[in-house]
Design a protein that fits this description.
Length: about 260
Amino acid sequence: MVEGLKDKVAIVTGGGHGIGKAYCLAFGRAGTRVVVADIDGPAAQQVAAQMDREGAKALGLRVDVADEESTRRMAAVTLEHFGRIDVLVNNAAIFATIPMNRGGIETIDPAEWDRMMAVNLKGVFFCARAVLPTMRAQKSGKIINIASGTVLYGSAGRIHYVTSKAGVIGFTRTLAREVGDDNIQVNCIAPGSTLSEENPTEAVIHMRQAAVQARALKRIQKPEDLVGTMLFLASPLSDFMTGQTVSVDGGQNFL
């Protein structure tokens, strides 16, 4: 168990599926009280119920991170139930559970571009603003944003997704400067291509397998591979680390 996470309160957006679900379960096993926030409300409730069965304290909420009022309610309900907010994980994104165009720049509908930015980038902005008053008052907090290894690698295709995740890295660096005086750490994880899909098809497995040869560690990445870095960044072990992006991709990109 990671020291310093017991009885802390963490909000994980996009916590109802895939990598976000893995984060929630790991926090619960570390003794953290968890708000599972997801636009898929039933999925959030199911993850919270699973955590309850494992002896963790969890609350499932339907949250649309692209709606500022929804993120404000998320923070308010968290305070009502748990009394504090120690960790925010900005994980929600259009990627797997919400389909996106993976083609070239000419094939992307401007409306899809705008929706991608609204969820993947503006959602990070709204969620951070929702929790910061509490973290500032506490003089402590951890905000962990999720970017993507596609930013570092410069992957062709899905340019709207890659651009949104590049923005997350810039957001992380600037916010770290703005909130450091309040003892709030802001860091970022850049996962590699991860088999996060539930019940993946052979085509999906083949796509994830394609990244293996570019890695130092030659295997498919799974959600559980990201858990250790997440718990480290959420814990007191990283108290003097802020504004950083950690690449967790099996050695595909070296920062």
